[in-house]
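Before the break, one more example. Copy the sequence into your notebook; we will annotate it together after we see the structure.
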Amino acid sequence: MKWLVVQTKVNCEHKAQSNLVRQGYLCFLPKILKVSMKFNRLKKITKPLFPGYIFVNLKSKQSWSKIDYTFGVRKIMKINEKLCYIPNSIFNEIKNKCDSNGFFSELKTLKSGDNIKFIKSNNFAFDAEFLELIDSKRSFVLLDILKRKIKVKINNYQILF
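Here is what the structure looks like once it is written out:
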């Protein structure tokens, strides 16, 4: 499978993807889930992993000329007027770090002993040491309070990198 790198217009990754899928192309848009504070509340925001870019699978008999004229697409990335294909090894590594919905999991890259920060709902960040991933929603961390290490279970959306 050959995957093209396609540059989209500003904030039009989802529009470009839906229009290309409608034309029969297979697209991949890796996303990340960011947590931000707005009005003293935690808010989850979905953002593209590579802002302004999507990956499009070009089958052997499929024409690439329609891609340039698709709504939301800026241009196909080219090097010396040749189509820019992403190597399969790199694409597969990105795809393997994403779940079935295309969300890139940074938690898969965390190892026991990594230093992290996590936030509580009162807008206060704690320094902690990552221990282990319980499941897709929770993790264990070691919190250092008054020179004592305490094992705490937290929600994964509270982890900041």
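The longest strand covers residues 125-133. Residues 77 and 84 are 5 Å apart (CA to CA). Try to locate both features in your own notes.
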